[in-house]
Amino acid sequence: MQHIIDRFISYVIIDTESDANSETTPSTKKQWDLAHKLVADLKNIGMQDVSIDDKSYIMATLPSNVQHEVPTIGFISHFDTSPDFCGANIKPQIVPNYDGKDILLNADKNIVLSPSYFKDLLLYKGQTLITTDGTTLLGADDKAGLTEIVTAMEFLINNPEIKHGKIRVGFTPDEEIGRGAHHFDVDKFGADWAYTMDGSQVGELEYENFNAAGAKIIFKGKSVHPGYAKGKMINSMLIANDFINELPQGETPQETKGYEGFFHVHHLTGSIEETVLELIIRDHNKKKFEKRKELIEKITKKINKKFAKQFGEDIVTAEIKDQYYNMKEKVLPVKHIVDIAEQAMKEIGIKPLIKPIRGGTDGSQLSYKGLPCPNIFAGGHNFHGKYEYVPAESMQKAVEVIVKIAELTATEGTARK
Ligand SMILES: [Zn+2]
User: Fold this and answer.
1) Per-residue pLDDT tens digits for 211-227
2) Cα(175) to centroid of ligand 1, in Å?
3) What is the pLDDT of residue 362?
4) Fold of 211-324
């Protein structure tokens, strides 16, 4: 266990915060620091064809050790951390044999990680927790994933009696700003399918995510002196308000769960002459997703019609852009790749928790680029903030799942291409 903790800590102490405002890849230069270390680690444990490209995407191979033909599988994680919270000067704290009580993260600032608020903590009584010092995030998202993949490959190399096919490993920058899959060369990776190790609690296995679009809606207006405005002024902010009121009641992120979709107004700026409204549209169901986009068009038309005479041209314009799609469509035709992961968990005594993601993963984009890619737990909790923590035992379990998936894929009869 100490080995896995040491490796994890060697990754989290390197600051790799990504930056959505940057146009480069990786988005921040500092991500190269960990990228170079990962390349060295992969070489050190004996991986082959270790490569890093000019955008810092890392790939490596563990060759097959069986004679028969086995599908090539991949394991993927990302090495950047979220810009939502400080990712520099991370000082991980180790809580051995967790007693189920409050954990004082920072005495000076009185920051406490408490099971009375974060009930999940109680799942890990008696285990070794790795936490922050209350001033940064931890970066278990997704350095736990990196740790698990490297450790599992090392285990397979050191235990050649475990039979497996060709395994490809991929580490990406900039996942947290939605670009992890953008420059991922699926052909070069050359796997039949892959798994992102980027989920949370032990047992999580995900192959359904939202269909996603973003809309930018611009309202025009006419500014006139308020004293002489009767019948002349058009206040774009009030039109935007009408637009929001036309959206269905109760379909917001805070009022929905499970498979329920939503509209989420996340940005609004305005003056009398112009108001810009930005919202996102999410739905697991493709048909309902399309209907939601149509509704935006419909409301736009309705308002334009109402102001056609007075304004003379379209008073509202809506620009809708698809962002990503539900990977289920790409994964269901090859459902055995989920079944193998589920079976692997069961064989090592983990209860699989299969549920739809209310968001997206790099795996959804990769699935649409031709690499079906469900998501598996990496073990951490409370991502993107100071309460982030990961039990070392959960990382160990993830290592076992990776090894078992490799083993099952190479077992004739289990895997199909
Ligand atoms: Zn992640």
Assistant:
1) 999 999 999 999 999 99
2) 7
3) 87
4) Alpha-Beta Plaits (3.30.70)
